[in-house]
């Protein structure tokens, strides 16, 4: 045993320098590798049977069955199809939560994998293809793997681990589901965790862990605009109020807010108009036009400033045409996914060891996509990190991104995800036990 480890043990503080593997890490690594074939099998089973948000019946049944096989206390049917497992460790201590999301997307898979999805379902008035194009199949399988490993190590766990398998991450929280509803239905109570961790797969070096301290994913507000003018024949625009040309001017002006009106040093932001609904005929300028889009920001000040400017731009331009503009605020915006800086700093050595060394733990810029993990972080400190899953020999830039029909997960990276879950949970509970 090295002297500094002995001194650290006697002092009851962290027993390994940052990133250096301990015998416990070696044990976790061996157990995660041993679980990997099962994790891959779970992932493929879930992948071949993807389920849209709030329809995760089969996935939830698989998860609940496996957690029961491990002897856990299991709650089902939370926020529709959510599952929560509780593992009580062999020693007294605190409570930590690990979270995975389970839902798939309305995407037609084009990966050509032997276990690719060929599933279609009814969504509203039309039939859509369904696929795990965001990797939530891998998230669910990795968390099940972590549940298996931590159960094997139960006797040495000081406290309890809560496994939160969440439905409907991809759906808007206004649609009665996801993290917000899980919290409202008690996922963070009885017992109440004091920290939560989660991970997302993304293009990147397979098995490398990417993280950001502070704002790591953007807050999101839906933008919903209705313009009302005066309907007229397409050949006589002067006889009405041209809502289509007004829409074009508004889109152009909104695109200028980020680049010309907001201070770039206050953090990145994105304003996108993605839908435009007007006339059904080429010779009718419609009475009303609906525009829909999103605002993505990394802090409240930028969000508030952008919202004021969006409203001013839309109403003033409409006014100049003699049209009316209605803007509906987003009643259920996504908060910023904010990694508590103190907790992040505390967990970095554990994440580095899980990844296999400091060179495989990479600080990366924030992502402008949003994630409903943010709702848990509004209640308790949490850290959300990323796992690289690019195919072997394919660069990050050339990897099909999440939500692409070609999105795939490099299964060799899944054992690292299992290790990361296990290592942060154990490390957090051990740190808490030393603080008591
Ligand atoms: Zn997604
Ligand atoms: Zn996702």
Task: Identify the notable features of this structure and list them briefly.
10 helices, 4-stranded antiparallel β-sheet, 8-stranded mixed β-sheet, disordered N terminus, Alpha-Beta Plaits, binds zinc ion, Aminopeptidase, alpha+beta, 18 strands, 436 residues, 2 domains
Report on the architecture of this protein.
The structure is a single chain. The chain has ten helices and 18 strands. The model is unreliable at 1-16 (pLDDT under 50). The strands form five sheets. The protein has an eight-stranded mixed β-sheet, with helices on both faces. Strands 12-14-10-15 form a four-stranded antiparallel β-sheet, with helices on one face. A two-stranded antiparallel ribbon has the order 4-5. By secondary structure, the protein is α+β, with helices and mostly antiparallel strands. A hairpin with a 3-residue loop joins strand 1 (73-78) and strand 2. The chain is elongated and about 80 Å long. The protein folds into two domains: 15-217 and 334-435, Aminopeptidase (3-Layer(aba) Sandwich); 219-328, Alpha-Beta Plaits (2-Layer Sandwich), CATH 3.30.70.360. It binds zinc ion (ZN) (2 copies). The site of one zinc ion has 4 residues, from loops. One zinc ion is lined by residues 134, 136, 169, 200.
